[in-house]
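$ ./design --mode recover --in tokens.txt
reading tokens...
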């Protein structure tokens, strides 16, 4: 029993130590003169360039970005991600969304079920009955 408990404790220590040494994966890889450094937006990093010179770099997100589709383009807040999906039969879907979901112009994000139901009812009213 004691041996099993000791083996379990050692395994937990080894697993804990290896996860503590693991580095966070970064969202971007910045390459300068052939030297790559992994970095996240808003983060500083030191890069040792060929020749030994060290440069301090920073990756910041712009407030706005431009999305260009096949026949159109638009400027949007950079916190919004735009994705393109080919649905087949010459149909392409573009989706603009943030971590909080999609947003319609002039409409906020609804938080409760009654608002969503009201919104769905209103959308049905827009279609008309005849």
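writing sequence...
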């Amino acid at each position: 029993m004691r041996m099993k408990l000791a083996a379990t404790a050692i395994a937990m220590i080894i697993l804990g130590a290896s996860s503590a040494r693991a580095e966070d994966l970064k969202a971007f890889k910045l390459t300068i003169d052939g030297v790559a450094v992994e970095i996240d937006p808003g983060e500083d990093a030191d890069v040792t360039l060929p020749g030994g010179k060290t440069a301090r770099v920073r990756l910041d997100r712009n407030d706005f970005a431009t999305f260009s589709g096949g026949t159109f383009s638009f400027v949007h807040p950079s916190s919004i991600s735009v994705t393109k999906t080919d649905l087949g039969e010459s149909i392409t879907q573009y989706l603009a969304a943030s971590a909080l979901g999609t947003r319609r112009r002039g409409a906020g994000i609804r938080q409760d079920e009654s608002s969503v139901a009201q919104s769905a009812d209103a959308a049905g009213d827009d279609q008309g009955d005849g």
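exit 0
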